[in-house]
Design brief:
single chain; 162 residues; alpha+beta; Arc Repressor Mutant, subunit A; 3-stranded antiparallel β-sheet; two-stranded parallel ribbon; 5 helices; 34% helix; 17% strand; globular
């Protein structure tokens, strides 16, 4: 599986938030998986230069040494989901926005449930920061990696942005 021929390559590593899988295809990062959430406890696997860099940036972000990622990414999804994911990239580190605020921002007021659905389908959580989207009533809402990890990520960003 060479990285320049369009085949997908997956690398799994233990991180500060558990076993994570990151995939690349065609020279771009395409997926991030919370493997322990799915019950998969695969051993670490060899990476490629891009996947090694993705994990380097991921670990640096978890340690608070960087606030943004500089990786080539490509998330596969519907046109609506793409609009949501672009809006998520605009939420500053340490801040949050409600599902309703994102819906209004992308020009579809009242579509907060659809925004939540797009967040659940985000193939690149953390890289595309869906953990920064919360409920308007103050609740944190759901998260692909689990609400415990979502709260941890929110706390990490709040702590590092003070």
């Amino acid at each position: 599986m060479a990285e320049d021929n369009g085949l997908t390559r997956l690398c799994c590593r233990q991180t500060a938030i558990g076993m994570i899988g990151i995939a690349e295809s065609g020279g771009v990062v395409t997926n991030l998986y919370f493997l322990e959430k799915s019950g998969d406890r695969s051993a670490e696997t060899a990476g490629t230069p891009l996947l090694d860099e993705a994990f380097r940036q991921f670990d640096a972000w978890l340690e608070g040494r960087i606030r943004t990622f500089t990786l080539p990414i490509a998330a596969d999804g519907t046109a609506f989901a793409q609009r949501v994911w672009r809006a998520l990239l605009e939420i500053p580190y340490g801040d949050t926005a409600s599902y309703g605020e994102i819906a209004t921002l992308i020009g579809v007021p009242g579509a907060s449930r659809a925004v939540g659905s797009a967040c659940r389908r985000n193939p690149l959580p953390i890289f595309i920061p869906c953990h920064r989207v919360v409920c308007s009533d103050g609740g944190i809402g759901g998260y692909l990696g689990g609400t415990e990890i979502k709260q941890r990520l929110l706390d990490l960003e709040r702590r590092d942005s003070e």
